[in-house]
UniProtKB/TrEMBL annotation:
<dbReference type="InterPro" id="IPR029016">
    <property type="entry name" value="GAF-like_dom_sf"/>
</dbReference>
<dbReference type="InterPro" id="IPR052016">
    <property type="entry name" value="Bact_Sigma-Reg"/>
</dbReference>
<dbReference type="InterPro" id="IPR001932">
    <property type="entry name" value="PPM-type_phosphatase-like_dom"/>
</dbReference>
<keyword id="KW-0378">Hydrolase</keyword>
<dbReference type="InterPro" id="IPR036457">
    <property type="entry name" value="PPM-type-like_dom_sf"/>
</dbReference>
<dbReference type="Pfam" id="PF07228">
    <property type="entry name" value="SpoIIE"/>
</dbReference>
<feature type="domain" description="PPM-type phosphatase">
    <location>
        <begin position="195"/>
        <end position="411"/>
    </location>
</feature>
<dbReference type="GO" id="GO:0016791">
    <property type="term" value="F:phosphatase activity"/>
</dbReference>
<protein>
    <submittedName>
        <fullName>SpoIIE family protein phosphatase</fullName>
    </submittedName>
</protein>
Length: 417
């Protein structure tokens, strides 16, 4: 009779636990379907384990939403007065590949617990539940099984929310890049001049569709040509908006027909008023005068362009600091070059010289200079086509590390006074 009563009591306890499991699963499922906040799900989970299953110590670890390789303790029971781990337990948790007993030798923090249950989703761990003592020792196996089931439901829901947030962030990033690319495309000239006195050709390949490189030019009726290249810090819409503002200032200020010294001074002030020193642009601007066949230029912290002719190579280095970093430029020099009958000016951003091949070799400046010596007699368009072919052959299967922009201006003997 006593054995029969004992079996009946055991069956009643098991039935009670199963009823609890069904009720809680229903409540949690409804909460998930109602898109309840993650913190509220953790509260429901903690309350169920502590008040209805009698769990005295528990710690639930889930993946960090910002760093997939880092694990965070999402909720806990009985750990308020215990020393918590002051670093990521990812390596220690990875030792647990199946439900079982905790080995306290793995890490001192694990001495607070008896059971561990890894939660897998598509064979990938998404959570770990560490369980310590219960208020009652009866039906331990059944209680751990119920905790495992409930934890699986909670952890998968949290993982799905995390992946959904990541997807939204990725979609927002892609939308930002797409908008930035559209804005940027409107800022880059569609056509470039091809005159008897000069011609311009470009290579423009922004990384991921949108970058921080800028090229532009302006022709004047008095026989002058201004062309420029710049590299803005940042990407996406923020860089595109800064570039749009820069373009507006470039065309407004260059039309004032002041000399390059005043032009660069004013455009630096305009950039600084927007960025307050938090963003900047490397910039090179040159003015070619067909009447005196002189090139005047300012290099504001930009990779030195190459002036190549029958006389050899000259680097265009004179100028000032990058634009936008400080409100008043401490020094500014305008470079002046009396050109020979024919010359080629090759301007570029650092995406060119940062390019590497499979062997880790860099397409450094010396390679570019040697190429310029061999190819300087060609038209600007032919020069750029050969350069692009050489770059593709050099990099082989490697990706371009940054935006790739080249503006090449070929200059012939201009008008005689």
């Amino acid at each position: 009779m006593t054995d029969q009563i004992t079996r009946m009591n055991a069956l009643e306890r098991e039935l009670h636990l199963r009823q609890l499991q069904v009720r809680r699963l229903l409540q949690i499922t409804q909460a998930i379907n109602n898109n309840v906040a993650v913190d509220d799900l953790f509260d429901m989970y903690r309350t169920f384990l502590h008040q209805e299953l009698g769990v005295l110590e528990m710690a639930l670890f889930v993946r960090d939403s910002q760093n997939d390789q880092r694990w965070l303790m999402a909720t806990q029971i009985g750990m308020d007065d215990k020393p918590l781990p002051d670093f990521d337990l990812g390596a220690a948790l990875a030792r647990f590949t199946r439900p079982g007993l905790v080995n306290p030798k793995v890490h001192p923090f694990f001495a607070n617990f008896v059971h561990v249950v890894p939660v897998l989703h598509k064979e990938r761990p998404i959570a770990y539940i560490l369980i310590g003592r219960f208020s009652e020792e009866e039906d331990m196996f059944e209680r751990v099984q119920i905790i495992t089931t409930i934890t699986n439901v909670i952890a998968v829901a949290i993982e799905n929310k995390r992946l959904f947030r990541r997807q939204l962030e990725q979609e927002r990033l892609e939308a930002d890049l797409d908008l930035g690319a559209k804005v940027q495309q409107m800022l880059i000239p569609e056509k470039y001049p091809h005159r008897d006195q000069y011609e311009i050709s470009t290579i423009y390949k922004p990384k991921l569709g949108v970058g921080g490189d800028y090229i532009d030019y302006k022709e004047f009726e008095d026989g002058k040509l201004v062309f420029c290249i710049g590299d803005f810090t940042g990407k996406g819409v923020s860089a595109a908006l800064l570039m749009a503002n820069f373009q507006a200032n470039f065309h407004t200020l260059i039309k004032k027909r002041t000399d390059l010294y005043d032009f660069v001074t004013e455009i630096n002030t305009a950039v600084y008023q927007i960025t307050r020193g938090e963003r900047f642009v490397t910039f090179f601007v040159a003015e070619y005068d067909m009447h005196d066949h002189v090139l005047r230029y300012v290099n504001a912290g930009h990779p030195p362009p190459v002036l190549v002719s029958e006389n050899g190579i000259k680097l265009l280095t004179e100028g000032t600091l990058v634009l936008g970093s400080i409100d008043v430029l401490p020094m500014l020099e305008v470079g002046t070059v009396q050109l020979p009958d024919e010359a080629l000016v090759v301007t570029f951003t650092d995406g060119l010289t940062d390019l590497q091949n499979l062997a880790g070799e860099t397409f450094d400046e010396q390679i570019l200079y040697d190429f310029c010596r061999r190819q300087h007699g060609r038209s600007a368009a032919a020069f750029n086509r050969s350069l692009k072919t050489m770059l593709d052959d050099f990099r082989q299967q490697t990706e371009y590390p940054d935006d790739l922009t080249v503006l090449t201006c070929r200059i012939f003997r201009g008008l005689e006074e």
